[in-house]
């Protein structure tokens, strides 16, 4: 694939802040942009650290990508050790950034640093919903940069009752700055593009493009062993209120014999669900910290993925499960119909009778390997090649 060779500045602040943690969906997008743009440079990277800003050239960006991929961060330097309250893994990551960067500066010196090192008219790309601050935008204007911002969803404004304290207003400010300052807003779906229009006045919506996310399908490795038996179901994602694990816990006594594997770490503001999990309900197993290959191996042999989330911007787990040929049961959300078509079984989460009925049916109809292979062949997931072909002609 050939793309225009433009100078680009990719914001890598989110990936830095996630050092040492499993990558979320938004993290994976930032990582995909880093990987692709390294092949279609010239590329620079910008990171806001706890002590200021660092600027990476293409060599530094490649070294940073290798660190994210391997998790092999170097020792914390003196500056990180004297910064109080800094997460230990982030301290290691920021120390490595200072070792590999082309330049670094205190916040007040950001504009001079960018003017000194970057070519005029560079395109700044922000995919992480972070670091789109007035200071950064002012510094970018000083070098005549174009600004492209990825908006993954408008969930904080659509379902504020499922958000952490303070995140709704923070996201509102982010969206306002994007609308006022971006030359292009990138959306992962027509649904997100539509949602964006609902929250912004018509005269404040910059040009937008909708480009489905590609799928980096992980090859299954070895599934973890435990006290579960076949049939078992998988639900995947952070245990937070929006993901609606409570529905599955409410239903599970009425799902005879089947086991439920909850793959994901505990999140926030979900104490009632945590309390229920702490009682070790029968045939329910909490499995945090699995890598992608282990999750893929579990999905491949499961009776299906259960995904009763109240709201999703894209929802990668159902896409990944469908690509593996696993049956999928999801809440009836427009984004799934856009991305997955008639592949999943749709059931509104308000209809508990239908969820119970479909889970029991899926448990009884545990698919064979041949059926899974045929199912996987029915679904052609979106590709990163198509995504970047659409996006990078405009950024």
UniProtKB/TrEMBL annotation:
<keyword id="KW-0808">Transferase</keyword>
<dbReference type="GO" id="GO:0016757">
    <property type="term" value="F:glycosyltransferase activity"/>
</dbReference>
<feature type="domain" description="Glycosyl transferase family 1">
    <location>
        <begin position="230"/>
        <end position="342"/>
    </location>
</feature>
<dbReference type="Pfam" id="PF00534">
    <property type="entry name" value="Glycos_transf_1"/>
</dbReference>
<dbReference type="InterPro" id="IPR001296">
    <property type="entry name" value="Glyco_trans_1"/>
</dbReference>
<protein>
    <submittedName>
        <fullName>Glycosyl transferases group 1</fullName>
    </submittedName>
</protein>
